[in-house]
Request: fold
Amino acid sequence: MFTGIIEACGEIAAVENQGGDCRLRIHAGGLDMSDVKLGDSIATDGVCLTVVRFDSNSFEMDVSSESLAKTTLGEFKLGRKVNLEKAMQPSARLGGHIVSGHVDGVGTVESREWVGESLRFRVRVPDGLAKYIAIKGSVCIDGVSLTVNNVEGAVFDINIIPHTADTTTIGDYQAGRKVNIEVDIIARYLERLLLGDKAADVAAPAITMNLLAENGYLNG
Reply:
């Protein structure tokens, strides 16, 4: 598990294709490698990956074809900057929100503008993820824990303060950028819980007002 508080920005140092999968080597940048072990998890642009080799200033990770197809990892090229966070420890402060490192989909930055000293981005998510995005709720973009400021259908707004723009890759985002999206884990499980016994159906029904009423979540 992670917090969405980025520890360092790294850089893609090598991409080795392996029959549909690939191996990434990443320069760790300012990431503290002193306590890293084989098998540790490091979120790379929000994707939880396993360390298979490392030294004092870099590490390597294997990426499956599934992850390449469902995240932005398939677009990674040499020199690309990436957000890095080691798995949180039980004693650590939860400064962001609970992040699993399991990407739900790829979104697209639609616009970027300065608002005072902050950057405002509008991000479009796949239609199937729109129901999990709520005003003042949490969302994880490329591993960064952020607060949703406004929602219009499948498009939401975020404001990025100067510190976040300077210490993550978000400050470099331009319209058209593809980004990894992880919705709030509580929203995902809540949806399944609301389905009750119907969740076991192969074709589980969508959550509708009628379904909520049938299960006692609406009055009248």
Observations:
- The mean pLDDT is 91.
- The longest strand covers residues 8-18.
